Amino acid sequence: MQVKEKEVVLEVKDLKVFFHTYRGKVEALNGVELSLYKREVLGLVGESGCGKSVTALTILGLLPENAYVISGEIFFRGEDLLKKSKEEMRLLRADEIAAVFQDPMTYLNPVLTMETQLKEVFMLDTNLLRKAVVWQKNHGGKIAFDDLLSGKVKIRDNSTNPKVSKSEINEMAKSLCIDILRLVKMPDPERILRQYAFELSGGMRQRAMIAMALARRPSVFIADEITTAVDVTIQAQILNLMRELRDKIDASTLLITHDLSVAAENADRIAVMYGGNVVEVAPTVEIFKNHLHPYTSMLMKAIPDVKNPSERLESIPGTVPEMINPPSGCRFHPRCPIATDKCAMEKPQLRRITENHEVACYNVAV
Amino acid sequence: MEKSEVGTIKSEWAARWADLKYTLYLLRKNPLVMAGIFMTLFFIALMFLANYIVDPRLANPAGYPEFGGNYPFQRSYVWSKGNIISWGPGIHLYEGSEFFPLGTDGWGRDLLKMIVLAIPVDMENAIIITLGAAAFGTLLGALAGYVGGVIDEVILRITDIFLSIPYLILALVFAAMFGRTIETLRFSILLVFWPTYVRLMRGQILSEKEKSYVEALKALGAGHARVLFGHIIPNSIYPVLVQATLDFGSVVLTFSALMFLGFSPSPSLPELGNLASDGYFHIFDAPWLMMFSGLTMLLIALAFNLLGDGLRDVLDPRIRR
Amino acid sequence: MKDILVVEDLKTWFPIKSGIIQRTVGYVRAVDGVSFGVRRGETFGLVGESGSGKTTLARTIMRLVKPTAGKIFFDGVDLTERKSKPAKLRRRMQIIFQDPYASLDPRQIVYSMLKETMKIHRIASGRSDVHKKALELLENVGLSEEHLYRFPHEFSGGQRQRIAVARALIVNPEFLILDEPTSFLDVSVQASVLNLLNDLQKAFALTYLFISHNLAVVHHMSDRVAVMYLGKLVEMADRDAIYNSPRHPYTFYLMAAIPVPNPEIKKEEVLLTGDVPSPVNIPPGCRFHPRCPYATGRCEQEEPPLVENDGHWVACHYDIDFNGGVRSSRIKRRKRRRV
């Protein structure tokens, strides 16, 4: 899938995040560098402990109490998100940057019906609803979420603001809910609205979460391991849904996963993370054909491939580093087959090898 | 903070000690809990040392010269601003040169000394009763939770019966049935407190029972007894510990309530509830009597409560690790 | 007997009770008539999604759950007869569970865990003996002495699984059931655990029943594979036969859903619609018919039996060519072979 515009929507520069715990300082992020372009799907791949979820939480401003951002910047629309207040971040999360996480059961309120929860998202912006009602009254016919999404319908600010009743706003919100459930391919949306979270299956809950995330037409959509907790056939459905929605929504997606295969099928570019750093970034096809960083190469060889079976899987010697006392220099050097002395001393920065392929390693031949 | 001690742990005891250090670290973080711990330690120390600090013979009014005894002790004076109280025929107490920091009680005994002597009695009560109730209730609860079926139903119903009666009335009934010595009173109160533990333990057992490691142990061939006593109960014991610390305070108060209501084994027994009940009738004339003994009871209950709070916070498996 | 484990029409039903007197109003038919045999020395893969009953099947074979009907033969001995002592057989058959974070007692250090198992089975006694054997076991699974005195929470997921394997090996089992052993593990860790399992299989002549929902992993490990859906087997064959030429529609869709780590292979939009069903409400006739695009009226009424054709067992009324969608009824039907 070609990315025509190379406009940067979100840029993370040299992000360092630490956590204070009993055992000491956990250096979770060690200078993460990421760029997310318009309308692309960037796959952020890494194993547990590499810092991919922490990166997402930092972007969203949802880090826990004991986390400290030591340095770095996150640029979105020309502003540094790290300098924003909590309230500003909250508004941003409501409007521009949306996220869906791994386990939908814990993120949905068990005592509210789906209707209440979905409507809540729309009700965050009553102005828009009001304008939509007015538009509908003026133009007749029903306004659909699709139209709002595609921007076909321009809601102009009417100076003569006729009174719009609360129930009309409610009605509009409800019809938009139904639309958005249809968008994520939920069967029988009216019935779903009446149900509670526990009455839905895992796949449906995940769709509901995606619906809630997309309701506000965000520019950035963060999907953090959304298919890890579901069965493989449901995973296929959800990923297919994401692919179909791509054309409709104008968002850039940060697809976080530990499964390289999932990233292979759904991402335009892949960024591989290890030990709190991005170690390689390249377009998907390129990275699979021509992986440069030793970690990426070993990771590729560790995956069992049905089409390409092997007698023995390559595993990476050693274990994932303890972030409390991380290795000096390049964090991968203790396990790296081509490590040199320099690797232990100084952390390699992401270098541009070709136009769209970056690697953080000293020993990579161009 | 220190680095994790990888590789320096060479034995089982070292491992458990490292674990304990983590617990202590967590405890240190909360000032209220530390206060609770110190207070509890203070009271426990008193429990052992009280009889050395204060001569226990002071508690027996019959030893005073006025009652015909021959303790060579000073007679009593009331600490207040010139109040004269008459406690009974033939005895007059009045302000004098002797200083009693907390005043005296009805027999003219130094209140402070009496409180010091009373603390061990109450502490022993608290510990014996709570531990006894906890042990008994825990075992029954474990049995009910693990075995299930009819045994579970029977134990639950009995527990329900006990729990359905307001605890003070229950205590009164038992006290009336079993008599007034300290031992029987302890037994009566124990009977009031054990049902809570049954419920608590049973709940924990029911959830631990389903966990993977229990299945794994069974798959390995471990028998029921080993699984229950060696694994499930140790893993379920924490809420019981917390409840026990909270119950210490309640036990002291319940015992005192019984004293209040007239079940005291002997009117001159130095026991906080006893002292308080003496003071009840003179609350306007000699408020110090009730005040200070009540305050001590409060402090004991508070100490254990804070300890319990701290334990609960610390042992919560979600906060640990 | 060539087969070390034989399962015959095994059923495990859980009663659903309701009302004050707890009447049984229905059953969760988790395992609803499963028959297969595992050959000595092979790795038999069992695939299925949630609700398929594969975990219950594992537990039933290990006798952690009582079977409702059917038979289990281990090395010719009927396990379902009450007379047989499961304790003795426990030594020959062990299980590794899915969640490494829950399958070890959090309050026990590794040394105690191993010592306890040895005590239960009266293997090794005396401090130095136990210590020696413990070290040996840890080395077999790639751990070392420094790990002996640590608590489970100090280990990573992969290491915990190794400890579980070490513990299971104490009793020198012949048969190991692996219930999703690597599902909770990272890719690189998974690779090393799978390699370890393969090495151990060669070293100790073990037979594995490998259960997983991860088709790529099952493909890597197994010699033969069976697919489970809603409590029954829908297909069973040699590994390559199942992966390259599946005959049951469910298998076909499962294979199609596996994400492939190769971006150049274009994925066709082959999607299974609908949700994974629950074993409380089992559809009549063929269990798969509500989701099957090839279903006919016959499928709604008649449950297809598991029928063998050249070593390849399928439970479907039709022979479907998945490329063309052509259906043809089975011409001959052989009686289900008893193993």
Largest sheet of chain C: 8 strands, mixed
Query: Total number of β-strand segments of chain B?
Result: 2
Side-by-side strand order of the widest sheet of chain C:
6-7-8-3-9-10-12-11
Mean of all residue-level pLDDT scores of chain C: 84
The assigned structural class of chain C equals alpha/beta
Biggest protein-protein interface?
Answer: A-C, 44 and 44 residues
- SSE run of chain C: EEEHEEHEHHHEHEHEEHHHEEEE
Number of strands of chain C: 14
Low-confidence stretches of chain C: 331-339
String of helices and strands of chain B: HHEEHHHHHHHH
End-to-end CA span of chain B: 16 Å
Query: What best-fitting shape of chain C do the alpha-carbon axes yield?
Result: globular
Provide a count of the helices of chain C: 10
Number of helices of chain B: 10
How would you summarize what this structure contains?
Chain B is mainly α. Chain B contains ten helices and two strands.
List keywords for this structure.
heterotrimer, B: 321 residues, mainly alpha, 10 helices, 69% helix, C: 339 residues, alpha/beta, 4-stranded antiparallel beta sheet, 14 strands, 28% helix, disordered C terminus
Task: Describe the secondary-structure layout.
The complex is a heterotrimer of chains A (366), B (321) and C (339).
Chain A: E1 8-21, E2 24-37, E3 41-45, H1 52-60, E4 67-76, E5 79-80, H2 86-95, E6 97-100, H3 104-107, H4 114-122, H5 126-139, H6 145-150, H7 166-183, H8 189-194, H9 202-214, E7 220-224, H10 232-248, E8 252-257, H11 260-266, E9 269-274, E10 277-283, H12 284-289, H13 294-302, H14 341-345, E11 351-354, E12 357-359
Parallel strand pairs in A: 3-8, 3-9, 6-7, 7-8
Antiparallel strand pairs in A: 1-2, 1-4, 4-5, 9-10, 10-12, 11-12
Helix pairs in contact in A: 4-7, 4-9, 5-7, 7-9, 9-10
Chain B: H1 12-28, H2 31-53, E1 85-88, E2 91-93, H3 111-147, H4 149-164, H5 167-178, H6 182-209, H7 212-220, H8 224-263, H9 272-280, H10 287-315
Antiparallel strand pairs in B: 1-2
Helix pairs in contact in B: 2-3, 2-10, 3-4, 3-6, 3-8, 3-10, 4-6, 5-6, 5-8, 6-8, 8-9, 8-10, 9-10
Chain C: E1 3-18, E2 23-39, E3 43-47, H1 54-61, E4 69-74, E5 77-78, H2 86-90, E6 93-96, H3 110-120, H4 127-140, H5 157-169, E7 175-179, H6 187-204, E8 207-212, H7 215-221, E9 224-229, E10 232-238, H8 239-244, H9 249-257, H10 297-301, E11 307-309, E12 312-314, E13 318-321, E14 326-329
Parallel strand pairs in C: 3-8, 3-9, 6-7, 7-8
Antiparallel strand pairs in C: 1-2, 1-4, 4-5, 9-10, 10-12, 11-12, 13-14
Helix pairs in contact in C: 5-6
